[in-house]
Specification:
alpha/beta; TIM Barrel; CBS-domain; 2 domains; 8-stranded parallel β-barrel; 4-stranded mixed sheet; 18 helices; 25 strands; about 20% strand; globular; binds ribavirin monophosphate; IMP_DH/GMP_Rdtase_CS; GMP biosynthesis; potassium; CBS domain; Inosine 5-monophosphate dehydrogenase
Length: about 500
């Protein structure tokens, strides 16, 4: 007979934390959000930790190289999406690893023949106002000139005006040779009162820019996540189909951690993938697996050698797996169940296998709840897709800026490998939707607010670290009536009274 779970499965919004005693030491500035990412033995140090408990989803609409760089700056890890050709994914990883803080690859480039209209269109698309004019229109072409917003006046110039008539030509540009240190570049910027300094090869090809504002920003990233060679850390997704080619390419590109990207991870395919990686690389390549939603699935993947296990089926904001296939489990219940098994596994074997709560984080406090319930870190898609650093377009809809966000199981992404159970090499039916999310500005500002809330709640619970939160947390279920009580209620909101903004 079928097995029936006794309790209904629940989501994060059905829980709240009940505050504990906070001492005068318990202030947000003293909170550490450091957390393990990969397995380690009792008494040993975890070989890969993060400074904040957040990773970005393995999705086309979320994790490209900009997210890789941006999130590492904030102390977390982006998992570069797998639903693209191997060489392209490896290039993205390589660009994050080669990124030198403060040295920016030029993504807004023009050719001599381009016009003012092209400049404006490029600015609209990338949001960047400093543009290189190169012989081949790429970020590594020979530098012929620079265009910034100080070089043109839209109201007084014809849109068909050629770039070469108003750009600052190469001979008038202050530049620095490849190999210049960030400190020396900054001195040149300061001495010449520049906003941007192009770094050039000996034969005049563009390598990167150093921007005045980035140098200042770099000094403000105390949590940035660096490898032993002071490069940013980055992750990448793999699938259970082409791992024999994809993994070597990603490892060669310098990836720090992999994850098998699948909607359902309790499978022989994942076992085979993990075994292949272990036989080829031993413990040197770190790889997470998933997704699972109960202790049984966790134990299977832990026994197969997964470095961490991802938890969550059907809770993603763009995910319709529960509707289409009828599989899944409320995300809070799944995390609680898997965390209990992880602790049992640790007691029995002395091996700690971190777990990642993937999907369904809607409010910032859901992160704190997930941590209190036992997650070591959270994976977020919708959250990160809203920022400048996600690879998607910013569009104006009904007067508000939005970003596009689509599921890996949508017809748009066509990531059939993620849903593959062996057999056909195509997406048989959709498990995800294509959507808009409200644009939310820069990653750094957004995460600062989110993490301030997490730290503050931890202090309310008397916890200065994630393990302490887990030990001290008191969680209560809330009734549907008390959920209403939790929002603004029985008042007329001024925004809605005046018909909104
Ligand atoms: P969310 O943060 O709620 O947007 O969820 C993101 C997660 O949703 C991803 O990490 C992944 O596990 C899942 N996902 C991605 N695509 C799809 C889909 O098309 N169904 N689901």
């Amino acid at each position: 007979m079928a097995y029936f779970f006794n309790e209904p499965s629940r989501t994060f919004s059905e829980y709240l934390l009940v505050p504990g005693y906070s001492s005068s030491e318990c202030i947000p500035a003293n909170v550490s959000l450091q957390t393990p990412v990969v397995r380690f033995k009792r008494g040993e140090e975890c070989p890969l930790t993060m400074n904040v408990p957040m990773v970005s989803a393995v999705m086309q609409a979320v994790s490209g190289e900009q997210m890789g760089i941006g999130l590492a700056k904030e102390g977390g890890i982006a998992f570069i999406y797998v639903s693209q050709p191997i060489a392209d994914q490896a290039d993205m990883v390589r660009r994050v690893k080669n990124y030198k803080a403060g040295f920016v690859f030029s993504d807004s480039n023009l050719r001599l023949g381009d016009t003012l209209a092209d400049v404006l269109a490029l600015k609209e698309r990338t949001g960047h106002s400093t543009m290189a004019v190169t012989d081949d229109g790429t970020g590594t072409g020979k530098l012929l000139g620079l265009v910034t917003s100080r070089d043109y006046r839209v109201s007084r110039m014809d849109p068909s005006t050629k770039v070469e008539t108003f750009m600052t030509p190469a001979e008038k540009i202050v530049s620095a040779p490849e190999g210049t240190s960030l400190k020396a570049a900054n001195d040149i910027i300061w001495d010449h009162k520049l906003n941007a300094l192009p770094i050039l090869t000996a034969d005049g090809h563009l390598v990167s820019f150093v921007f005045r504002k980035d140098y200042d920003a770099h000094k403000g990233n105390p949590l940035e996540l660096l490898d032993s060679q002071k490069r940013y850390m980055v992750g990448a997704g793999i699938n259970t189909r082409d791992y024999a080619e994809r993994v070597p390419a990603l490892v060669e590109a310098g990836v720090d951690v992999l994850v098998i990207d699948s909607s359902e991870g309790y499978s022989e395919w994942q076992k085979r993938t993990l075994e292949w990686i272990r036989s080829r690389y031993g413990e040197s390549v770190k790889v997470g697996a998933g997704n699972v939603v109960d202790g049984e699935g966790f134990r299977f993947l832990a026994d197969c050698g997964a470095d961490f296990v991802k938890v969550g089926i059907g809770g993603g904001s763009i995910c319709i797996t529960r509707e289409t296939k009828g599989i899944g489990r409320g995300q809070a219940t799944a995390v609680i169940d898997v965390a209990q098994e992880r602790d049992k596994y640790f007691q029995e074997t002395g091996i700690y296998v971190p777990i990642c709560a993937d999907g369904g984080i809607v409010q910032d406090y859901h992160i704190t709840l997930a941590l209190a319930m036992g997650a070591d870190f959270c994976m977020l898609g919708r959250y990160f897709s809203r920022f400048d650093e996600s690879p998607t377009s910013k569009v104006l809809i009904n007067g508000s800026y939005m970003k596009e966000y689509w599921g890996e199981g949508s017809a748009r992404a066509r990531n059939w490998q993620r849903y593959d159970l062996g057999g056909a090499s195509k997406l048989s039916f959709e498990e995800g939707v294509d959507s808009y999310v409200p644009y939310a500005g820069s990653l750094s500002d957004g995460m600062a607010t989110t993490l301030a809330k997490v730290r503050s709640t931890m202090c309310n619970c008397g916890a200065l670290t994630i393990p302490e939160l887990r030990e001290k947390a008191k969680l209560t279920l809330v009734s549907s009536v008390s959920i209403v009580e939790g929002g603004a209620h029985d008042v007329l909101l001024k925004d809605s009274a005046s018909g909104g903004k």
